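Tokens for chain A. Residues wanted.
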């Protein structure tokens, strides 16, 4: 099974499922390059997101960076 990664949601594993594949493609099409408010890296995330997946996961876990 192939996995895919994006800065919005991290790893995508169930790409055999048509609905998952369409949602992944939609996220890729809508994403823009911007600076993550957490790590400062330039990432491709949805316009209304401020943090990449890695930083969002750390924030949700209570980890300060």
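Reply:
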């Amino acid at each position: 099974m192939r996995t895919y990664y994006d800065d919005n949601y991290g790893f995508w594993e169930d790409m055999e499922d048509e609905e998952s594949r369409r949602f992944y493609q939609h996220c890729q099409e809508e994403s823009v390059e911007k600076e993550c408010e957490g790590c400062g890296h330039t990432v491709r995330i949805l316009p209304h997101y401020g943090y990449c997946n890695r930083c969002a996961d750390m924030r949700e876990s209570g980890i300060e960076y």
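Strands lie at 4-6, 10-12, 32-35, 42-45. The longest strand covers residues 32-35.
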